[in-house]
Design a protein that fits this description.
The chain is mainly beta. It has a domain at 118-381: Single-stranded right-handed beta-helix, Pectin lyase-like (Pectate Lyase C-like, 3 Solenoid). It is built from 3 helices and 30 strands. The strands form 4 sheets. Strands 7, 8, 10, 11, 13, 14, 16, 17, 19, 20, 22, 24, 26 and 27 form a 14-stranded parallel beta sheet that branches. A hairpin with a 6-residue loop joins strand 3 and strand 4. The protein is globular, with a radius of gyration of 21 Å.
Length: 382
């Protein structure tokens, strides 16, 4: 569907959802010719905000008393954006998340906010690289009830009979740049135990650059989050799994996140895949809460030069005392950068750690502690 005109006010969008209008409720707010912003801000994670006037509205849009509050009727917003509403009950622009993504034109040049109402959306979603500047936005009070869920695993077959493999099994794949999401749950319902073949089952795969995830939930078991390539910022997120459940070769900062093991016996949190020494990649966990069940490694050396650092984290008594694993290749012990700084909790005890892991000094850990690790000054305005 090609839409040339959009209702120029958030409040009309809300009433359109409520009344089930037959015309499109795809909203465009002009920005008076301002150039595209090649960064992510808090505004990109909001659908409704007060600007210039004090008029507001609170609208019930479903039986669960899900509210849109402070919807401003003034068309002069501070940021250019389109809003596409996803409602599985049929009162939005699309009943599926993929349908909303498909409404975004290729080579999109402005922020498009896909506003997802609570519900379990059982579908596989791909945001292609040709569609940058997309936001997935839920309501912060209903993140656990706003779920994109699928159940592919690596050993499943595609339509041509080939195995999906770990790379293609993700419930949600983000290939585009400048993507951001908040108050959404990404889920893969496959359950796996260590050693089970073909049970890798990602909930989320990210290959786009400059992505931010704020208060999202990523649920799975083996290989939950495929943090594949690019620079990414995970802030106040919940990530759960049992084996290598954060893996890939991205350069990502996990700040103030809840990292939850659901291992029954043993497993591993991170498996970074830096295979070339001059690759500027790595995982940095800062001020995270590491807890859950089983006994797990802090990280495994999936690549020859894997890089994973935990700083100022609380680590519960779930860590295998040696802490780190060389993936069965002793040559990697002298090449990887695995270490900890100022972590607390029973799992942070370093007396049993492998000798080739590092206990950082304050000066040594400084490059890993803030958004500068992911060059956030170039693409984050928070």
């Amino acid at each position: 569907m090609k839409v040339k005109a959009f209702i120029p006010a958030v409040i009309l969008l809300c009433f359109g959802v409520l009344l089930g209008l037959g015309t499109s409720r795809l909203l465009q707010i002009t920005d008076e010719g301002k150039e595209l912003r090649n960064y992510i801000s808090w505004e990109d994670l909001r659908v409704v905000e007060d600007v210039e006037t004090k008029r507001s509205s609170s609208i019930k849009v479903n039986n669960n008393n899900w509210l849109i509050s402070n919807a401003n009727a003034n068309a002069k917003a501070t940021n250019a954006s389109r809003v596409i509403v996803v409602d599985k009950k049929g009162r939005g622009d699309s009943v599926t998340v993929q349908g909303a993504v498909d409404m975004v034109p290729d080579s999109n040049s402005q922020r498009v906010k896909i506003f997802i109402l609570p519900g379990i959306y059982r579908e596989k979603v791909i945001v292609p690289r040709t569609k940058p500047y997309i936001s997935f936005i839920g309501n912060e009070s209903y993140a656990a009830e706003t779920v994109i869920s699928w159940s592919d695993k690596a050993s499943d077959r595609d339509s041509k009979g080939g195995e999906l493999g770990t790379y293609r099994c993700a419930s949600v794949t983000i290939e585009s740049d400048f993507f951001c999401a908040t108050a959404i749950t990404f889920e893969n319902t496959v359950t796996a135990e260590p050693g089970e073949l073909g049970k890798q089952a990602a909930a989320l795969r990210i290959t786009g650059d400059k992505a931010m995830f704020y208060r999202v939930r990523v649920l799975g078991s083996q290989d939950t989050l495929n943090d594949a390539t690019g620079s990414h910022y995970f802030y106040q997120c919940y990530i759960q799994g049992n084996v290598d459940f954060i893996f890939g070769n991205a350069k990502s900062l996990y700040q103030d996140c809840d990292i939850r093991s659901i291992a029954k016996r043993y497993g591993a949190i991170a498996a970074h895949h830096r295979s070339i020494e001059n690759d500027d990649t790595g995982f940095s966990f800062v001020n995270c809460d590491i807890s859950g069940s089983g006994k797990v490694f802090l990280g495994r050396a999936w690549g020859n030069f894997s890089r994973t650092v935990y700083s100022n984290c609380f680590i519960d008594d779930i860590i295998i005392p040696v802490g780190w694993n060389d993936w069965g290749d002793p040559d990697r012990q002298s090449k990887v950068l695995f270490g900890e700084y100022n972590c607390k909790g029973r799992g942070a005890e370093r007396r049993g750690r492998v000798p080739w892991s590092k206990s950082f000094t304050q000066d040594e850990v400084k490059p890993f502690l803030g958004r500068e690790f992911i060059y956030g000054d170039q693409w984050l305005r928070l």
